[in-house]
Design brief:
Length: 475
């Protein structure tokens, strides 16, 4: 299995070769040359599998340069009940992604039982173990540099803490994250984790990362790496739970299932698209956005019009506050028949700050063949959905998941099973739950008092020179 760039001007590489990198050298995103196909018999066999067995059955089709026994060991270490321990009372941690029935044919797939209470752990935990394995084997090290406004940074830190050959330098806007999110990250005492609180906003943090990445000499000398949402390893790990969710709510392979996915950078739902391309019987893939609705606009009109970062709204579902969807190019590449020249033309417009319209050239009609539909939510509708979910289903959901449920209701026909992906636990967004329900959500008891633990972080001015000097000093 080789990986190619959506822009067609980079050499094809193996899984381990693309694992530690980000964009392809031509600016494109990596995708497998072809999607491995799952037969009816394969799917039947998968019905009896544990999460780890299923993960191996799927990932081994994408990874052919890690020996089978090693890959199996990495997966078994990643997907075990100890790691995904924050399960709701009535659910079984051994399921890794337990399913909760809300009503007839409507389900919630719990993806947020990992250490940072958000679905990003599902892929990031695997990435941490894969990184350590590949780096150790090749005798290499890496310094991961990232910017976060919350979920990504904490998921990366909890995945990389204590890992050999890896340091993490994570920039976050000083005093701008919730107390809980800050405590989650800053209470880590591991020596290989560096929390840097930047005097500025999230965009300042991102600009510092970009400036360092654009300094090719520094980047090479200090082995700067990334774990952002375009990383192929993250996408492929997420394919697994679409299979798990499908198998959990069906009795036979003739049934189809729809998924509703709270979306920001299009990473999560991109994995659903790949599962569908592999032959998983998915009916609809529902892209649910918040007020930052670039994707909803595209799926309704065929126009992709990324916003400038000043026009990004700060919402009560902050992990979906994006101005452009960094994984979207992967889907469009498939939609235009894997025509890399066409993809290059479209993204030269995007990279110059413009939009593109797929209606004019006939591609927009093809979207239906891929099962995609979309919708969006507002602050008021998310608050209302949290209240309704509590009243109707006796379950407390977070604001991101509320966005997914709100849009799922609009497409739910009561016949086709519908799975809403739970992308965070409510405990992570306490303030919003108090606003909606008038009381705080339940918090996993071991996290009680996390805000009072000693914190380890460095305050820094928003300057690329400052972060470079800090990296030099600490490596
Ligand atoms: C990251 C995140 C999302 C958005 O996922 P994408 O892969 O960027 O589409 C949604 N909800 C939560 C809680 C997240 O952390």
């Amino acid at each position: 299995m080789k990986y190619i760039s959506t822009r067609g001007q980079s050499p094809a590489l193996s899984f381990s070769q693309i694992l530690l990198g980000g964009l392809a050298p031509d600016g494109g995103l990596y995708l497998p040359e072809t999607y491995p196909q799952i037969s009816d018999a394969d799917l039947t066999t998968m019905r009896g599998m544990s999460y780890a067995e299923l993960a191996y059955a799927i990932l081994s089709r994408f990874v052919d340069d890690i020996p089978a026994d090693d890959l199996r060991a990495i997966i078994n270490e990643t997907y075990c009940a100890d790691v995904y321990a924050y399960t709701r009372q009535e659910q079984n941690a051994a399921d890794i992604t337990p399913i909760l029935q809300l009503e007839d044919n409507l389900y919630l797939l719990s993806l947020s039982n990992g250490p940072t209470l958000a679905f990003k752990d599902m892929a990031m935990q695997l990435l941490g173990n894969l990184f350590e394995y590949v780096l150790t084997k090749e005798g290499k090290t890496t310094n991961i540099l990232g910017a976060t406004s919350g979920d990504t940074g904490s998921a990366a830190e909890y995945a990389m803490r204590g890992k050999k050959g890896i340091r993490v330098f994570m920039l976050s806007p000083h005093k701008k994250m919730s107390r809980f999110q800050t405590a989650q990250m800053f209470s880590l005492q591991d020596e290989n984790i560096y929390n840097i609180a930047v005097n500025g906003v999230f965009d300042d943090c991102q600009d510092m990362v970009k400036a360092v990445s654009n300094d090719a000499a520094f980047k090479a000398q200090y082995k700067i790496g990334a774990v952002n949402s375009i990383n192929w390893g993250r996408i492929v790990a997420q394919v697994v739970y679409y299979f798990k969710g499908y198998l959990a709510v069906t009795q036979n392979n003739a049934q189809k299932v729809s998924f509703s996915v709270p979306s920001g950078n299009f990473g999560n739902v991109c994995a659903g698209h790949i599962a569908r391309m592999m032959g998983l019987p998915i009916d609809k893939l529902i892209v649910a956005t918040n007020e930052n609705d670039v994707l909803d606009e595209f799926f309704k009109t065929g126009v992709y019009s990324p916003r400038s970062s000043e026009k990004t709204y700060h919402t009560s579902s902050p992990s979906m506050d994006i101005s452009k969807a960094s994984n979207f190019e992967r889907f469009v590449f498939d939609l235009v028949g894997r025509d890399s020249e066409k993809t290059r033309t479209l993204w030269s417009k995007v990279d110059n700050g413009n939009s593109f319209d797929l209606k004019a050239d006939g591609y927009f009609e093809k979207i239906a063949d891929y099962g995609f539909v979309s919708g969006s939510s507002s602050h008021a509708s998310r608050m209302q959905t949290i209240r309704e979910a509590q009243a109707k289903y006796h379950v407390v959901i977070d604001t991101h998941t509320a966005d997914g449920l709100k849009v799922a209701w609009a497409y739910f026909d009561k016949q086709t099973p519908m799975v809403v992906l739970e992308t965070a636990l409510p405990a992570k967004f306490e303030e919003a739950i108090i606003e909606s329900l008038g009381h705080a959500p339940e918090r996993p008891s071991v996290l009680n008092g996390i805000e009072n633990l000693p914190q380890r972080f460095t305050v820094m001015e928003a300057s690329a020179e400052a972060i470079k000097a800090f990296i030099v000093e600490n490596t």
